[in-house]
Structures are given as structure tokens and as C-alpha cells.
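Troubleshooting log. The previous structure file for this entry was overwritten by mistake, so regenerating from the original sequence record. Sequence copied from the archived sheet and checked twice against the printout by T.R.
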Amino acid sequence: MKIKLQQKDYSLGREIYQLKLPVDYEVRIPDDDSVRLLSRVVEGMDLSELYAEYSDRGRKPADPRNLFKVMVYAYMDEVYSSRKIETACRRDINYMWLLGDTPAPDHSTISRFRKDKLGKIMESLFYQFVQILCELGEVKHENIFLDGTKLEANANRYTFVWKKAVEKNEIKMHEKARQIAEEMEKLYLRPFQMRAENADYDLHQMIRFLETKMKESKIEWVSGSGRKKSNEQKILEILKKYRVRQIEYEEKKETFGERNSYSKTDPDATFMRMKDDHMQNGQLKPGYNVQLAVESEYVIGVGLFPDANDVWTLKPMLENMYAFNPTMEIKRLIADSGYESEENYIYLGARKIE
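Regenerated output below.
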């Protein structure tokens, strides 16, 4: 009988054989397999913060501890796609062993867990693991090696926003709005203010006055070609545009923080010169300054900074490590001259770090 390939029942015409699987997966997993070490370490961790991310109401979720084990093991196995992790949970015996009796999670569950649950407390879990290394005597904080690198962000290179340009354009707009306020004082014989520190409020007050004036004077709001606009409408349209721009300037300045630039498609990224410049023209690109603290081949500290210069990252990097481990006593810090500054020497001296 000829069998069609396009059919619903793919078991037709199969070869007759019996696949023998052990009842217990442990028989097939070596005693020294890394998955066993991972499971033992995670079992000793306090995951109360992770469980607190879940609500008692609704359907019972997949066990967060097992999902955390699967996620860490997948990254150890260089598997990062949620769909590939789902496939591994259905086919790979190590992933099945980590899940225990629970069914394999689908890719959407894995994605939500990574983004909504794990992302909020990942740093805390990381430093909890560092504390375990300290208790085991693997890390003693005697010689900490600190270094960093710049990683280009997954953002458009030409969506930059510069702080100086925003400040310059805002000053120009304030000057034009101040001239309008002076004209309105002469025209309506009442005071109007245009202060840089209260620009949004002052623009709003002038807009409200003109809207009320047009309503009281029964001045019609016109649009389209061939229709003449009143003087009040012309000024009002300009002020409304200025207020929209003022709100945009305020949002941009809030996004800047202490930085001088950011990317529209990735506001967390700052424009800086990369070490590996494939364009060979020294062009500024959106990126991050990633800092790592290492001892005994273990990464014991991680920091992500918007500063292009390493000198500004040393203090906040160490302070963050102290925040998660207050009893930590660093004896020596080894770093290159990129971190050298008088301020950093004073800080290290106060912390009694050589």
C-alpha cells in the first residue's frame, strides 16, 4: 500500500520496535553531571523573593524553583530562545529531571517568567549565589580583579538625542515665548510671565487666557485655505505648539538623568565610542559599559553603567556589591589605569582596600 506523506496519522507504516526507557531518569544521568550540582545549589538558595512575585489567586503556576533551575541550566547550555528551551524540556532528559513531575512549560510561560518574574530579582539571586561561594570558601575577597568593556546596544545608531541640543533648543523656544508674553502685555494691558523654571505653567496660563478671550469676544476658530485667522488664534496656535515641545523637553531631560545622550529606540543606552569599531571612523554608537568583578575565576560582581569612562564606575560598582553583602571585606583591588583618580584613591583608602 502506498502511504501519502501528507496525512494526519504519521504512525502509519512505522517500523515495529520497542523503545525502552527507565522508570527513573536518574539511571541515565551521571553522578558527576553539572545538572546535579546546579539542582543542589538552587535547592540551598532562598527563593522567597521569587515566590512573592506570584499571587495566591488564580490557577496554580508552574513551580518557580523548577523554572529557575531550567532557566539557569539552559543558559549554561547556551540555549537562550524560549522556544528552544521549551523543546529541550520535552526532549532532553536533564531538563525533564529538573522539572520533576511537573509538565514541560510552553515558551510563553518561560518568556513571562524570565521577563516579569525573574528579571526583577535576578541581581539579588546572583549575589545570593556569591554568598554561597563565600560560605564554601571558594571566594575570600582577597584579590578582586575589576575590568569592563563596552557593548553596542541593539538600537538604531542614528536615533540619538543630545542633551546640549535639547537645552539649546529649549532656551530658544523660551526666548520666543517671552517675546509673545511681552506683546500680550502691551495688547491686553495685564502682566504675563515666561519663566524657564515654570515654563509649562506659564504657557498654560497664557493659553487659558487666550481661549477665554476668544470665547468672550465670540471670535470664531477658523481653519482651511482662504479663511483669515484672528490675531488671538495665531498666537494661541503658536503657544500650544510651544507647550507640546516643552512637555517633550521635560521628558527628554528626565530620560537623560546625568547622561549627555540617549537613543530613541533604547533610552537606556548612551552614545559612546566602541573598542571594536567595524566602521573604522570612531563614530559614536549606543551602548553600555559592562563591569565585572572576578575572583578565583568566579564572577562575583556585575554592573551596567551609562558612563563611557571607567573611572566613574568604580565607586558605584563596589557600593552595589557592599549593598548585597554588607559583611564583605575586600583586601585588594586590581584594575588598570582607566580607573585611576584622586577621588577613587580616597574612596579605596576609606574602605581600607589596597
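The chain has three domains: 25-122, 143-156+266-350, 161-260. Archived copy saved in two places this time.
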